[in-house]
Every structure is written in structure tokens, then in C-alpha cells.
Amino acid sequence: xxxxxxxxxxxxxxxxxSIYKQIHELQSDLLKDLDSKNELNKIMQxxxxxxxxxxxxxxxxxxxxxxxxxxxxxxxxxxxxELFAGIEQIISEIEKLVLELRAxxxxxxxxxxxxxxxxxxxxxxxxxx
Length: 129
What we know:
The protein has one domain (5-128). By secondary structure, it is mainly alpha-helical. The protein contains four helices and no strands.
């Protein structure tokens, strides 16, 4: 049993939230670039950067998986703690950002469809998702 579980989990979730925020900002930039019809190289660089961020999130998820399992088991006994509320808020923020990212993904796919060479762009985007 991890004695400082809430703090460790909070730190891990904050790290993930930070990465998701960076992805969200990057995707906003990408959507602007698609609107301005910037060259494919810049768009591909942004997609590669997004892929790197997603790899970081996956690594953090793997690292904190044991903490999450323990949290699920001990959650009921911690519901009255201040850290519990903070952790639940971070989880809600992450869930909200993930939904926004998915919506942005769909918009990007639609915009790729509207551009010439869209088949190659869509394939590249899906490969990096």
C-alpha cells in the first residue's frame, strides 16, 4: 500500500493534463495551418509533434497504472480528503480535454478531405493518431 498515493497520483495526473493541454494547443495551431493552406511539411511536423506528445501520455499512463489500480481500491476511504477532490477535478479536466481533442480530430479529418492530396494527408494523420 502506497502511503502517499494521493500525492503521487495527483502529480502523475497533472503531468498528463499538461501534455493534453499541449496537444490541444498544437491541434489548434494545426487547424489554423490547415485553414491557411500551409505547406504539407509544416502540417506533417505538427502531426509528428502530436505523436510525440501522445507517446508521452502513454508512457505516463503505464507509469501510473499501479497507482490508478490502488486508487480505485482505496478511493472510498479517501473521499473526504482534500486531495480526493483535487484528483477527481484533474480527472474531469483530462476527460474534457480528451473529448475536445477527439472533436478536433474529426474537424481535421474533414479539412484534410477538402484539400488536394487529402488521401495522403488523411493516411498520415491517421497513422500518427
